[in-house]
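Table 4 source record.
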Amino acid sequence: MELWEEAPATARSGLRPIDYAGAYPPCGCDPATTSLRFLDLLAEASVAARLCGERERALTIVKTALRLLKAGEPGASCGPGGTDFQRAAWFWTERSRLVQNLGRGDGWQEIATAQELVRGLPPSAVHAQVLATAAGWGMLHAPGPDSLADAERAVEYARVVGAEEIELDARLTLGGLMVDAGDIDDGLAEMYAVLERARDLGQVAEAGRAYTNLASVLQSIGRSREAVAIGAEGLEFCHQHGLVDNADWVLGNLAAAQFSLGLWEETEQAARRLLATAHSSKPRGAASGLLARIAVRRGRPDAAARRLADAVEHYGPHDPMPQNSLLLAEVSLAIAAAEGRLADVREEFARAARDGFPTGTHRYAWPLVVLAATAEAEARGLPAAEEGRAEALLLIGTTARRLVTPVALWRAHALHAGAELLRAEGRESADRWREVTAAFAALDRPYELALVRHRTADALLAGGGHRDEAAELLRGAHTTARALGARRLAEDIELLAQRARLRLSEPEPPADPAPAPAENLGLTPREQDVLRLVAAGRTNRQIAEELFISPKTASVHVSNILAKLGVTGRGEAAALAHRLRLFPASA
């Protein structure tokens, strides 16, 4: 490009567009008989730069082209008046992609500009490209019926003008939106058909996008093993064809599926690779989010908070998308719950639910509902949790009733949320928890299965009897928690087994009369008395008055209790006492 003006005219006249720019119309004329123009070269170069991950360079090239078109400089147009609306619209759609990927905007203003440029013009491939780009934007930023209609219109228009490459792009978007709308089988069939056709035509960029979207959609509906398989295939394809940008997105979606399958070591490796080598900020944001989710499940909320802050920084404030913001909300909510900050849990959930969850976002909504319901169940009986509790439960329940369950994974989440809401209301049902466990047992979600097995065992033991069944559930849950490194869950299982005098490593012997639950935790009788009052929300001075000891002695007892329980504050100690039902009378 830098040598264009210095090259002899005879040399330039023999060049022809090489057609790597999709719908872009080379010089507005017949590329077979008309030589390459400088603007054509800019179009080819911008696409090449974008596909190989050099987005800054691509954006610079696009800006140069738009300046030439606006100024009407020689060589910028084949049409009269120095203006070419179709080519300008094409460059604006490219600019939309680039500013989104660079985190400098959501890209909609650029799309709107392109739409204005083609309005009223005869049908063309560029017009179809603008429609397809708008539909793709809607899928990411405003999924729902309107975006689905936009995608259908883009497909029809591309067919009218015979632009199959653009048609494939629009069909891929349409397939993803169909899955979001509950038309699972037909939507996936459309996406797989696009992948096959793109490969047959040698449309490597579109095939790379198909691999990216398929891995994401399969993961969202609980078909994570299929997502891993298609992701691995796509990663190899992208590397073979130099699609470094697509490779980052495919790897991120592959890692998300591995996380769900309990392959956390592999997830961490992929996430660290993305942080070190990704060509844009959003895959790095996804990587940091995955590391945060692993950290919080492994009982390290402080590390999770640091990773969450990294993710927020990588995503930036200029291009908010539900697939990013709602996943970050899930992490934030999980950290607050792990640290016993119920007020923050409620605030985070209320913020996420404030505008509702339109079609296309339910995949992200269900985990939020489950986390919020679980936090309320864990806090039941805590005096500090009573204010605002009724409103919080109402919001959780109302939100859950508005979400759909077209796939087994979402139905399992719905059952889990319902069981937690019953527990939060003091109406826990062992049979309901058995149903939740059966739902997750049919899925590849080992962490969630271990979690609900623990909860089922707790409900069985609380109802009396069923010790053998509870023991089997706890052993399976404990094995999984230990294998995953889910420290908090493993400790909860161990404490429950200890309280019930169940062995986790082998079948239990006949049970002897069990000591007091708090005694199993190494607490002295006096410390048990103090913990009972801490769980009831008493201050050190109130504890001292009730037990006829000095406030200083009460403070010493509280410090000893925190150390023995392995918690950092009174709130966590109280929550643990309620969770383990150490003092039923105070619940």
